[in-house]
Amino acid sequence: MADASGNNNVVPVIDMLHFPAQLPELIKACEENGCFRLENFDSILPVQLMSQMKAVVTELFELPLEIKERNVDVIVGSGYNKPGKINSIHEGFGLYDIASSHAVDAFCNQLDATPQQRETIESYAKAVHELITDIGQKVGQGLGLKSVPFEAWPCQFRINKYPFTHETIGSDGLKTHTDNGFFTVVQDDEILSGLEVMEKSGKFVAIDPCPGTLLVTLGDIATAWSNGRFYNVKHRVVCKEEGIRISIATFLLGPRDTMVETPLELVDSEHPCLYVPFKAENGVLWIGIRSAKSGVGFGGHETPSGLNSSGARNLGGFSAFLKEDENKLMNRGGNNENLMERGRVKPESIFNATLLAASGQPFVYGNYSFCSCC
Predict the structure, then answer these.
(1) What pLDDT does residue 165 have?
(2) H or E segment and range at residue 362
């Protein structure tokens, strides 16, 4: 299938006007590509509102630094990030929960938004949340589920600016990663490209600008929730030409107070459950090793070094465990080591860390914010 920009076999196109006929294609895109291009969603998120939001975002980035820095962190990955030593070609604002009118109002107050800017931000937040909920419902329908919980899950909002120059051509505006939430809806720049996704073969493919559409990418929680069916696609942003690239990304995270678990309909004798239920807390994913029969874990409640009450070693806010035979795990020596001393390799994601732990390979402890940027 061709994507909306004309490239063949890169990003499938999902037409919001063609449901329920598009349900099989939607699930196929989630499983094989880990991303898809969304079009004809104007009844929920008008293209005119997207243009207005892009204009507001551009104005926000022109604010004085002392005002921009009022957009403080609520969780890791939220709030204002100014260009710095780690990434000199990225600047961003953040809002933790777009479904919260209080949070949206606070965001506007922090940045001294004008009445017109405030109206646009509030309208965009409401519309994109409705769209994300609708996509989630369709994913559930495509899988044959009676219901899905996504409407109650928080959505984090990031707006990003990449001031690409001649000197930065060839540099990463954002390094290769997977998003840690369920999925991300990206309003990409209409002119300047830079976003690339990795196919399962390991080949990076450029995502060309396509005005009036959105790109949806699947994250780590989607892989666990779907019992491994959905592909958490790796992606990056690369500077290819001079210019200002702006993107608006909304992340469907995980539930605040309940467990993320694979629906019973997706588990049977031929498809045993790969992940035990886990909890996502405070928007941060941590790595841990579980010594119970559930096997390898990446998380648990935040505690001092050592085993916490759930049996997860060291640190954490993410209690997910890849099921693994306990004897194999113990023989590999993964349960009785401090993660801080496990080696020099730092995994790119929680899933990579889990696989390293399961195989007994050393790795460097790390924490992973729920969201990233596009």
Answers:
(1) 86
(2) none
Q: Mind giving me the DSSP string for 58-105?
A: HHHHTS-HHHHTTS--SSTT-S-B---SS-TT-EEEEES-TT-HHHHH
Distance CA 95, CA 166 (A): 31
Domains, in order of start, for the chain:
13-252 (2.60.120.330), 275-374 (no CATH)
Please name which of 194, 184, 176, 166 lies closest in space to residue 230, comparing C-alpha atoms.
Answer: 184
d(CA 210, CA 102): 33
* pLDDT over 50 (residue 160): yes
- Judge contact between 125 and 44, C-beta under 8 A: no
For 347, counting Cβ atoms within 10 Å of its Cβ (0-12 exposed, 13-18 middle, 19+ buried), the class is buried
Strand 195-198 to strand 235-238: parallel, antiparallel, or no bridges (unpaired)?
antiparallel
State the Cα–Cα distance between residues 191 and 210, nearest whole angstrom: 8
Which amino acid is located at 194 in the chain? G
Pick from 344, 356, 222, 362: which is nearest to 298 by CA? 356
What pTM was estimated for this model as a whole?
A: 0.78
Cβ-in-10-Å burial (0-12, 13-18, 19+) of 201 comes to: exposed
* Selection from 212, 206, 182 nearest residue 194 by Cα: 206
**Per-residue pLDDT at 4 exceeds 70:** no
Which has the closest alpha carbon to 36: 252, 227, 213? 213
Q: Is the pLDDT of residue 319 over 80?
A: no
